[in-house]
Amino acid sequence: MRVPLSWLREYVDVAPEATPDDILASLVSVGFEEEDVHRFEVSGPVVVGQVLELTGEPQKNGKTINWCQVDVGEANGGVRGIVCGAHNFGVGDKVVVTLPGAVLPGPFPIAARKTYGHVSDGMIASARELGLGDEHSGILRLADLGIDAPVGTDAIALLGLDDVAVEINVTPDRGYALSLRGVAREYAHATGGAFRDPGEREWAELEQPEGGFAVAVVDDAPIRGNVGATEFVARIVRGVDAAAPTPPWMIARLVLAGIRSISVLVDITNYVMLELGNPIHGYDLDKLTDGITVRRAQPGEKLTTLDDQVRALHPEDLLITDGSGPIGLAGVMGGATTEMSGETVNVLIEAAVFDQVSIARTARRHKLPSEASRRFERGVDPLIPFVAARRVADLMVELAGGTLDTEIGGALFAPYEREAIALPKPFASKLVGIDYTDDEIVSSLEMIGCEVYAADDEQWLVTPPSWRSDLTDKWTLTEEVARIQGLDRVPSVLPTPPAGNGWTAEQRGRRRVANALAAAGLVETPSFPFTTEAQNDLHGSASGEHLPSVRLANPLDGHAPHLRRSLVPGLLQVAHRNLSRGFTDLALYELGAVFLPEPGVSYGTADVPPLGQRPDDETLAALDAALPPQPRRVAVLLAGNRAAKQPGQVAEPADLADALDAVRVIAAAAGVRVDVEQGRRAALHPGRTALLRVGEAEVGYAGELLPQVAADADLHGRVYVAELDLDALLASAGASVAAASLSTQTAATQDVSLVVPVEVPAAAVRVALEEGCGSLLESLRLVDDYRGQGVAEGTKSLTFALLFRAADRTLTAAEATDAKLQGVELAAERFGAKIRD
After folding, report:
1. CA within 20 to 30 Å of 566's CA: 20, 452, 606, 631, which one?
2. How confident is the model at residue 136 (pLDDT cuts 50, 70, 90)?
């Protein structure tokens, strides 16, 4: 929320010497976050000038420039010659002149300079050049703003360009602060300055005409039982001059608040929205048919909104309609057919209160956030629409020459009541940890607008003000007490954690794996879980076949609307981003969930329970059933060099062995042994793809990406990936991982080369050797896979290094040999293995 300080001073006493930083510090003290300070970047001599002479001079380039003599006042040098390329002004017009030494936004310093054969001693400025808007087609004529100031007057002060705005971040629960009214009240809380509420007006001024314009709310499908509109006020102003200028003070305040000036009628509605926090919409009354009905959209209805977009409507969308059909998305954006324009003569003013959830859903559904929806979805004061409608009407009468119709209008509203909240007297002190006095608690609550009275000696009954819909229980009331009394008083005390079991076995396992990969030199790169259906098919299945994917109803990126079935697409995006920035040697990993919907199952159909209450077991079960399985996986990507080039050593490129080493790091951290066998994957290179198993269960894969797959991801060179089912790994390891004890006995080593058919996996032979060698075998490692001369065609020679050790004695060579031969015997039994001659 941007707050122009001249505007703030109208509603609260601000010390004359207070700087923007002082004001921000005061607002921070009552719970807002400081964002920025905004100014018009205009300085130096900028004055009112009057054109005395104007001579058009055609140029060789076909352009005609004006050589002007402009009176800027005796104090500013009298008459100055200025070159100007605009043609929307003439002799006698008063304009804004930036003299040498001035600086305009950009920054753009002004100096006397020779151009088009003349020395231009300054510049006649447009609204855009001054930072007052986007209009740059012509010079800013003061008559167009309704200004007739003496020549030489300081134009910076005249146009409000000396104003400053402070920007604060307003949290979603404090929607009342999206207005000058709310911020001024909070500033008064912080400083004790007198607050003047712009929302206070006599009912005699606000009372509606008894009839003449029909207003109705028809909501047969309320969301969560809340009717779409609880209040709707319609006031009529006739005979407005839509071409009347918006006063410069209003333009300056709107621009500083982040809203561009459009026209006097639209500017007034935006101004009152910022002032009171109630979004206002104006209709061209002569374009309306019959009365107004607020209802839900019907199937097949469409609406062209003010941004000229045709929008297909959803049955949940709340609409403003007349006899012709939809004329606006309630609380979000008006329709193009009834908008106010330069020909508008009669205006219907709408001030309403709409259901927060309905407006929030509509704005997100149509990807149409607006200043109006931002306020409605956070809650609007239900007692302010009458004031806001009358305030708009008064400004249209004052600035656009209209007349308020006192005979015809419309209003629909529900009686407003709020139940009192019970606040036990010791509760705030116990919760915050400060011994607040009763006077401190009561005065804090009354300061923010609550009505407080003692129900008995044990508790107060507190009725929150209408603009604080966020105050719903004793906890939120206590938060306000702490905020008003000063959050700096809250002690910094480390709470005692409740007794428990600490991390679960799965949590400890995931952290071990992540820490082990990081210790091995890989970098964790979490990514968004969004991808395309094609990427899911390619990396989420072994053969590339189409598998079901979860499609998001409202994706952040329309090009990636599906939830991932694999972590690899995210790693490819991260690798591409790093390569594009010059980082060529990559070792990346990610731990995260994938989403594996089952064919034929519809997900996301459960009703979301209302906020603020704990769902029962049945509701939680229904919500869980509406979600697809989400197992956790770990994936690795390697590209570029494993070791960089350095003196005396050439660069060592990463290869498949490095990917398998990463797999072994994961397996060791998880406490399991992963066996490797050759396999196939749609995205991986044939012959360079490994399937990973724990026992008989397949838990993942590793391999080199196909060159075309790497090229499609804009990656060059060889790229290696591995992906494992982390949940399955940890489940295989069990609840605990025991560290092996270190033996003091001497080990005995043996080697064996076995000839087996070429189709027999080395992993299977390894398993047979391990089982056959028995308990004396400590470790076994494949060291060679030979195929060629000396080995029969259709077979291969696998050489294993074996290490034997006994826990209680030194093994003899004979004992080690006997154990080895037992393993060879089992391998021969299973695969016909023979010791190589």
Report:
1. 606
2. low
